[in-house]
Write a structure and sequence with these properties.
Layout lengths: L6 E3 H8 L3 H9 L6 E2 L6 E4 H10 L12 E6 L3 H14 L2 E6 L2 H11 L3 E5 L7 H10 L7 E5 L5 H10 L3 E3 L5 H15 L1
Parallel strand pairs: 4-5, 4-6, 6-7, 7-8
Antiparallel strand pairs: 1-3, 2-3
Helix pairs in contact: 1-2
Length: 192
């Protein structure tokens, strides 16, 4: 079985959706289907998360699009806490979890794996969470990645302020794996 592709050509999208490649080009050019153009070329590329969102929005069957494991990146300077969270998530669900202990590693891992969801500990030392959030929001390759702020003990006002900053949700108790998984699933549903 081939490894799931994160980015598809218009021809691959046409095959998945059972339409002509020209139809996919029209969807792309009209802005209905988001993606990017290859620099110096007219070729278009569509992230699989965006295609899945488009197909669900238009009640198209998605079984032809193989999704695979959800990729999660945990960014936290506390190695033990990050490893405990990763182990808990991997035990409860079939997630592919990576850990970054600093901003540099987070950038490298995010570019390499294109995570579906990032769990970003706002209390992590030597990590500028808002800068990471801004970077993900402005990076075309990560435009479908969802960012959940891990803000232990946060209240409703703090959570709304974080959402206004660009976070997709807030986890106020990362030790509650049921609630954390629900937040991840909710973020991925929005993504799809």
């Amino acid at each position: 079985m081939n490894k799931k592709k994160d980015v598809l050509t218009t021809g691959q999208v046409a095959q998945i959706c059972n339409v002509a490649p020209r139809t996919v080009t029209k969807w792309f050019d009209s802005g209905q289907l988001k993606g990017y153009r290859i620099p110096g070329s007219r070729d278009r590329r569509i992230p699989t998360g965006e295609l899945l969102r488009f197909m669900k929005a238009h009640d198209m069957p998605t079984d032809a699009l193989e999704i695979g494991k959800m990729r999660i990146l945990i960014i936290d300077s506390d190695k033990d806490t990050a490893e405990d969270l990763a182990a808990g998530l991997e035990t409860k669900r079939n997630y592919e979890v990576e850990i970054a202990l600093n901003s540099f590693d987070a950038g490298i891992i995010a570019q390499r794996t294109t995570p579906h969801v990032i769990l970003l500990n706002l209390m992590a030392q030597n990590i500028d969470a808002d800068q990471i959030c801004s970077y993900v929001r402005t990076n075309d390759e990560l435009n479908s990645t969802r960012i959940l702020a891990v803000a232990e003990g946060s209240g409703e006002k703090e959570e709304q302020a974080l959402i206004n900053k660009g976070y997709d949700g807030v986890i106020s108790n990362a030790g509650d794996f049921t609630a954390t998984i629900a937040m991840i699933q909710n973020a991925s549903t929005v993504m799809q």
